[in-house]
Design goal:
Blueprint (H helix, E strand, L loop, with lengths): L19 H10 L11 E6 L7 H9 L2 E5 L4 E6 L2 E7 L12 E5 L2 H8 L6 H7 L8 E3 L13 H25 L5 E2 L1 E2 L4 H11 L8 E4 L13 H11 L5 E4 L7 H4 L7 E5 L1 H13 L5 H20 L21 H19 L5
Parallel strand pairs: 1-2, 1-11, 2-5, 5-6, 6-7, 8-9, 9-10, 10-11
Antiparallel strand pairs: 3-4
């Protein structure tokens, strides 16, 4: 029988302050939980934050591995008619006690869609937040390239260059801070070849056995030349066999397809249960309480492990195709394109602000 999530129910441990002893003990517990043993893909539950309540209590009781966004720990203040970032709410980290494991996402899409950029610096993020808790993994800052954010090809390439630079700077800060062992680089792209472009840019900071995250996947179709499977297949062909892969925001229907990559350890995170709970409450005409969402989270997680227990679905592997040829450029257009590439190179090398 597939993993029975109800068997994980147990009383949560008593709360405690986040002392140095807590950080040390948490470091050793932030490994893959027992529920992931024997499953080809590990499912990470995306929580809206670490506020005490039914969702966090259920995640503890079921011993679910979780992921939170850096933005959920942000402090904001009103200034000059707008919102200004004012630091981290680190006391919330004390509520992570008793969780099977916890990962940190850098909130790339939220920051790009709400604030049109990064409100904090690399130093703020790495030294102020990533170093404040023994995360199972913490993701590099990055610039997502979903169509809502990057509206043309030039902007996609610009954001990939800035993502490469952010990976390099986060990695350097991680070394200085002593937290490079759980640093998770992030690849960005629109086309499969874009991810290889990003991978080439950070190849010198990677180490064998590292987990590499794939961004801009939560709204991506499963199939097609730029689909999720094409991205995974392209990276699988080029990555060292020891590398693990994490997919941000990957929906349940894709899981059975991703089992084609069983030979590579894969983790995925999703908060799709929250949307399902909202729709269910709307259609049924009742309140979307936190208890209601917690029930949806439990049922959703059970369904994902049922999916994973099914025979894997094969897909037709495709030969890698070269990127589509762009339009013929005039002399002036070619000069502009060359200048843009030079600027991107400067960004990657640190000659421009990210």
């Amino acid at each position: 029988m597939p993993y029975d999530i109800r068997s994980r129910l147990q009383p949560p441990p008593a709360s405690s302050a986040l002392s140095q002893a807590d950080r040390s003990s948490a470091h050793f517990s932030n490994a893959a939980p027992p529920l992931a043993a024997g499953t080809p893909i590990e499912i990470i539950v995306g929580l809206p934050g670490l506020s005490e309540g039914p969702l966090l209590a259920r995640a503890r009781a079921l011993q679910l591995p979780v992921l939170i966004s850096a933005n959920s720990l942000s402090r904001w203040r009103q200034r000059d008619g707008g919102r200004e970032w004012a630091g981290w709410r680190l006391k919330q980290l004390a509520n992570a006690h008793g969780l099977a494991s916890i990962m940190l996402d850098s909130a790339g899409f939220v920051l790009a869609s709400r604030y049109r950029g990064l409100p904090w610096t690399v130093e703020d993020y790495v030294e102020g937040l990533a170093a404040a808790y023994p995360w199972r993994l913490w993701a590099s800052l990055d610039h997502c390239v979903e169509p809502e954010i990057a509206r043309d090809r030039e902007e996609v390439l610009d954001r990939i260059a800035r993502t490469v630079r952010l990976n390099i700077e986060c990695h350097a800060r991680a070394i200085d801070t002593g937290i490079v062992s759980n640093f998770m680089p992030v690849l960005q792209g629109r086309r499969p070849s874009d991810y290889l472009r990003c991978l080439d840019g950070i190849a010198h900071i990677l180490r064998p056995g590292q987990t590499i995250a794939i961004g801009s996947t939560c709204r991506r179709a499963v199939h097609g030349e730029d689909g999720l499977l094409a991205v995974f297949e392209t990276l699988d062909r080029h990555l060292d066999p020891t590398y693990r892969v994490h997919g941000f925001g990957i929906k349940g229907p894709a899981l059975s397809h991703l089992r084609a990559f069983d030979h590579r350890k894969i983790t995925v995170d999703s908060s799709a249960f929250s949307y399902a709970a909202r729709m269910s409450a709307l259609f049924d005409g009742h309140a979307k309480t936190n208890h209601f969402v917690a029930d949806h989270m439990q049922r959703w997680t059970e369904r994902q492990y049922v999916r994973l227990a099914r025979p894997r679905r094969e897909f037709q592997s495709s030969l890698p195709l070269p990127p589509p040829a762009g339009p013929l450029l005039t002399g002036w257009e070619a000069a502009i394109a060359a200048a843009r590439e030079e600027i991107r190179t400067l960004v990657i090398e640190g000659g421009d602000r990210t």
